[in-house]
Structures are given as C-alpha cells and as structure tokens.
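The data layer described in this paper is built around a simple, fixed record for each protein. Such a record has a labelled line for the sequence and another for the backbone structure tokens. For reference, a complete record is included directly beneath this paragraph.
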Amino acid sequence: MLMRNPHWVRLSAAGVEIGTSYTRAVLIPWSDVESATVRGRSVLANLDIAPRPGAMISLQDAKGRLPLTRMRSGRLCYPVGAGLFPGGPGAVTAALRARGVPEARPPAPKVGSR
C-alpha cells in the first residue's frame, strides 16, 4: 500500500514530535500534552493529540506547510493516522500513558430518532 503523505510520531524525552513528509514537524513538550484519543480500529485508527490551551509548541525550521489540525469537542488536536505504526495504535497510546498523558475516550455516537 502506497501512502502519499505518511504520518510519523516520535516519542522522546523532550515530548511528542508529529510530522509528515510534506509538512514541518511539531514538537509538543510532555507538560503541554493534555490528552490523546484513539478513534477507529486496526489500519484505519487515528490518534488525536490535544495540547493544553496556550501550550508552547515548537515548529521545525524548514520549508513546508503547517501540520493539519482539527477541532474536536472545542479543542485543537493534531490527527495522526496511527494504524500503520509498528505495534499499532495500542503501542503508541501505551507509550503516551507511560509518560502520564491521559487517554480521552471519544464521545459516544448520537442515535437519532426516525
């Protein structure tokens, strides 16, 4: 399977670094990561990393676009396709939990009446 814009995540002593091959990398220090939410399963899983409001986020000094952001429940998040990571999304969330990042649960889907 060929991906046009593969995501990558690095977990280091400094924090969470998120990037793609066409955007600048973003470094969020551990103290500024508010939560991480896994949405979906298997290869289609997405990981949304939400920084704290007013967090100091570092951008890579390189040419490129800013990384994609998404609003989830009124909060700014960085979505990452986590299904193809080694160990799957569970390995990434386990590493985040080991650093003290709480895992937020996605809201339950709303069931409409007919």
Q: What stands out?
A: The chain has a mean pLDDT of 77. The beta strands are 7-11, 15-20, 26-29, 33-39, 46-51, 58-59, 70-72, 75-81. Residues 50 and 77 are 4 Å apart (CA to CA).
